[in-house]
């Protein structure tokens, strides 16, 4: 009987963890003349963040085939504290300052994931 | 020396595999009166696809907090063959037919991932 309570507690705690996640879509438009340079900044920033920050669960960036200057980034942080910490890291600030004049527009869309525990195989 | 050639061949083959991936954003708007029912159809379809289809690498669906009828799905298939197979499965057809009158608009945006091997931790 105790076993089931422990399993139930684990499941509920997993669920609570998953629902704390901060999940966002960042939609950007980049100056076409500086696209390659922008991609290089973004790639370095993402690779460093995912590697060194436990709370950055993914930064999955895609460029539209028909409009390559349009980028969407699926951002998943373990919680808002992880995000607040992320935007103060040197690698994020290097990206943010280095690309400031390349970004023509930025829209941040807060979202709710349908299945918070979803992964990429 | 041979060892390095084997490692190089493995790295190149991994890179080729990653670049074959089909990565797409599906953007939908759902009839607000049928949102709960739509979410239930979508959840079942995603969970089944990711579980039984090796070539469906993720279907990460998010609903916008400010406009909950707006859904974006990051779809990653191992290649276009995996996608073609996916849309013929009974679980996909159940979702597609079951939600046909709930979907007000659907836009499919083909994309190129910045870092094809990116995962969700």
How would you explain this protein's 3D organization?
The structure is a homodimer of 121-residue chains. Chain A has 121 residues and is an alpha+beta fold. Chain A is 44% helix and 31% strand. Chain A has helices at residues 2-20, 35-52, 80-86, 90-98; strands spanning 22-30, 56-64, 70-77, 103-113. Chain A binds chain B through residues 23, 25, 39, 42-43, 46-47, 50, 54, 56-66, 68, 71-72, 74, 76, 109-115, 118-121, and chain B through 23, 25, 39, 42-43, 46-47, 50, 54, 56-66, 68, 71-72, 74, 76, 109-115, 118-121. Strand 2 of chain A pairs antiparallel with strand 4 of chain B, so a sheet runs across the interface.
């Amino acid at each position: 009987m105790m076993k089931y309570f422990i399993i139930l507690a684990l499941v509920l705690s997993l669920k609570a963890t998953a629902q704390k996640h901060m999940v966002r879509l960042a939609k950007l438009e980049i100056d076409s003349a500086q696209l390659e340079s922008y991609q290089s900044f973004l790639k370095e920033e993402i690779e460093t963040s995912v590697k060194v920050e436990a709370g950055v669960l993914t930064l999955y960036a895609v460029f539209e085939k028909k409009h390559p200057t349009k980028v969407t980034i699926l951002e998943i942080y373990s919680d808002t504290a992880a995000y607040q910490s992320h935007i103060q890291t040197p690698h994020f600030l290097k990206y943010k300052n280095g690309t400031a004049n390349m970004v023509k527009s930025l829209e941040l869309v807060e979202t709710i994931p349908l299945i918070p525990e979803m992964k990429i195989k």
